[in-house]
Specification:
The chain has about 675 residues and is mainly β. It contains 5 helices and 40 strands. The chain has an 8-stranded antiparallel β-sheet. A 6-stranded antiparallel β-sheet has the order 2-1-4-9-6-7, with no helix packed on it. A 6-stranded antiparallel β-sheet has the order 12-11-14-19-16-17, with no helix packed on it. A hairpin with a 2-residue loop joins strand 33 and strand 34. The radius of gyration is 30 Å and the shape is globular. The N terminus is likely disordered.
């Protein structure tokens, strides 16, 4: 026990014991199923009729079995033939109409909320049975029973949402912490975001203070046009449309309203709203209305949001004193580094930058130990921030670094387990260099308690606009005016000679008109200046610049996935659980990723041609269920691939980068362009 945290360990063990007794006594599916990785309780019987006590019980991610002529588990006493299984779960469903499917050999029965929906309890070769059912938003009980008589044994059960309601229904996830980490303690459907809780809790099992909520919905806007979105909250609130940051006021505050205008097309769009409440009273309201005019799609605009990255003016120009060339490093032994939390939970190791680092075990939802790096920066400007990950005692897959800069806070997650004595970029951010900005890391990872180690080492700040050649020009800088002197050789016009020389007059060359230089493009003064690859496309392409407008957030990186198709591309981003589909006709759509463990990964009834693929999991669910997606994309030409992709939201759209595919520019009018 000495090698692990002892803080509240007894409490955790006691809770675990209570939960174990409750599970053994009740034998009921957990209400948190929809979030759990193994939602199905499976009971196996050594007879065809589900009689007597089950000989084997386990939790399973999905009903997706092709045992053929084998036993599900011979060591548990399940025979090769003549066995039966009962699966039970409590599942979350968004409101809509669903098509339930059972693909079995032999008998199958399916209940939803205690009502039998599929009843094919008979010997049969592998057969697909289907039943359509409308469900309200919320948790619904699902029970499946199956038996195998003799020969091949197959049991696959899944469902697809084939239509949804016209009114907006929000999936609300409540967390008993202000960081939206860990498993939600309450998941329910809500018709609107309009709450004034005061000092009360939102629900009996939700805390009255220090809680957070994430609302997710796919909103069908009545017509294409500019819409004004509004959020009023005590304390923090932020919202996204199609994965582009819409508005942000993520801080402790009294009741404050932030607004933003955005052009959207007449189509379904994923909308995500996040809120946290600290101490005291709490309230939140989110709404939108269509504006009076409908501007051309190429010119969407956004009302500046107080406190957001688009609001704070950025000082500086290229003529200011250059930053010293040296990097600013705050090591874990520097004066700018500080530790917090119980000293008994901190451990030291002679590894890492300068041969030393701290580490601690992770917490699940409550922060116990934390560290802060406060740099003394020589001047305001854009700095790329790096964290050093030591080669030992750092195996968490979800270290959340929070960067407080320029009155804002941004988060960046690192999988420390894949780095060994490496500097890892946390992104580029604008710092005002007032001595109060910092990088913060605590022990909350959302992973099971004390299951991983978090390394705390050095943080480095590298100026991106000092030295000889700034990599990004501060937006308030005055663009260089075009030179008046023509570029290239100046040709002087020669007057004709009055007296011919020789028998033939020498022809006089024509006068060359000086060619004026190509003027340097005038870049808009944006509070956040695009840099690196996004900055190259934005700065060099006037059309992109005019259609996108200014960034509304700094460039950020997230674990993602991509897949190529005959007719386009698909991308998935982990931070917002969104799927983007870019079609060959130049249009794009985004969809909420609703695939969960327990859903079928792929449809066995759909067989692709040789050399092509059926997409799986979240990509596959969008491809199969969303109208028109499969027809536009066609078959996949590659398997799904994971990667770390970069994203940046703009007033008029979104940029995303893939190391293989290059840069995609997604405009708010539903069109896209591609740059390699």
């Amino acid at each position: 026990m000495s090698a692990m945290k002892t803080r509240q360990m007894a409490g955790h063990l006691a809770i675990a014991a209570i939960l174990l007794v409750a599970c053994l006594g009740a034998m009921l599916p957990s209400a948190s199923k929809a979030q759990g990785p193994l939602p199905w309780r499976a009971e196996y019987f050594n007879n065809r009729n589900l009689t007597g006590q089950p000989v084997f019980v386990q939790n399973e991610a999905a009903i997706d079995h092709a045992w053929e002529n084998n036993s599900p588990n011979t060591s548990a006493g399940i025979p090769f033939d003549g066995f039966s299984v009962r699966w039970t779960a409590l599942m979350w469903f968004d409101a809509g109409t669903y098509l339930f499917k059972a693909y079995t050999d032999d008998g199958v029965r399916l209940w939803v909320d205690g009502q039998v929906r599929i009843d094919q309890w008979r010997d049969q070769s592998v057969t697909l049975n289907q039943q359509q059912l409308s469900l309200s938003a919320g948790n619904h009980s699902v029970r499946v029973e199956y038996y195998d008589n003799i020969g091949n044994a197959t049991a696959m059960v899944w469902w697809e949402r084939i239509s949804g309601p016209t009114s907006t229904t929000w999936r609300a996830e409540y967390f008993n912490n202000p960081w939206l980490v860990g498993e939600p303690v309450l998941v329910r459907g809500e018709s609107e975001i309009n709450y004034d809780w005061g000092s009360n809790a939102p629900a009996p099992n939700v805390s009255a203070n220090n809680f957070s909520v994430r609302w997710t919905s796919t909103v069908s806007f009545e017509a294409s046009g500019t819409y004004t979105f509004s959020a009023t909250s005590e304390d923090g609130v932020r919202a996204w449309v199609d994965g582009g940051l819409l508005l942000e006021g993520w801080r402790d505050q009294s009741a404050t309203t932030v607004t933003a205008s955005r052009y959207v097309t007449q189509a379904p769009h994923p909308v995500i709203v996040e809120y946290y409440k600290g101490e005291g009273t709490g309230s939140v309201k989110f709404s939108w209305q269509r504006g009076s005019g409908t501007p051309a799609p190429s010119g969407p605009t956004q009302t500046p949001v107080p406190g957001s990255p688009t609001q704070t003016p950025v000082p500086g120009s290229p003529t200011q004193t250059p930053v010293p060339s040296g990097d600013i490093i705050v090591d874990d032994k520097s004066s700018g580094f500080s530790l917090g939390g119980p000293s008994s939970s901190w451990y030291e190791r002679s590894v890492g930058y300068n041969g030393h680092s701290y580490w601690t075990y992770n917490s699940d939802v409550q922060a116990y130990n934390f560290a802060k790096w406060m740099p003394q920066l020589p001047r305001a400007g854009n700095y790329q921030v790096y964290a050093f990950v030591p080669k030992q005692q750092a195996d968490t897959r979800s270290a959340r670094y929070r960067l407080s800069h320029n009155g804002q806070e941004h988060s960046y997650w690192i999988d420390q387990s894949v780095y060994f004595d490496r500097w890892v970029s946390l992104g580029t951010y604008y710092f005002v260099a007032n001595g109060n900005e910092y990088v913060y890391l605590d022990d909350v990872t959302g992973e099971p308690y004390a299951s991983h180690k978090i390394g705390f080492d050095a943080v480095k700040f590298v100026s991106k606009e000092g030295g000889v050649t700034p990599t990004s020009v501060p937006p308030t800088a005055t663009p260089a005016a075009p030179t008046a002197t023509p570029v290239g050789p100046t040709a002087t016009a020669m007057p004709p000679t009055a007296t011919p020389v020789g028998p033939t007059a020498t022809p006089v060359p024509p006068t060359r008109t000086p060619v004026p230089p190509t003027p340097t493009p005038t870049l808009p003064a944006c509070p956040i200046t695009p840099i690196l690859g996004f900055g190259g496309v934005w700065s060099s392409n006037a059309t992109v610049r005019a259609r996108l407008g200014c960034p509304v957030e700094v460039e950020n990186s997230h674990w993602s996935a991509e897949e190529t198709f005959v007719g386009g591309y698909m991308f998935w981003r982990s931070d917002l659980l969104l799927v983007y589909a870019m079609y060959g006709d130049g249009t794009w759509q985004s969809f909420a990723d609703t695939w969960q463990n327990g859903d079928l990964e792929w449809d066995p009834m759909i067989v692709p041609p040789s050399g092509l693929y059926q997409p799986k999991r979240g990509f596959g669910k969008v491809w199969r269920e969303q109208p028109g997606v499969r027809d536009k994309l066609g078959w996949a030409t590659s398997m799904e691939r994971g990667l770390g992709a970069d994203y940046q939201g703009y007033q008029g759209g979104l940029m995303l980068w893939s190391d293989l595919q290059g840069i995609f520019v997604l405009y708010n009018d539903g069109t896209w362009s591609h740059y390699r």
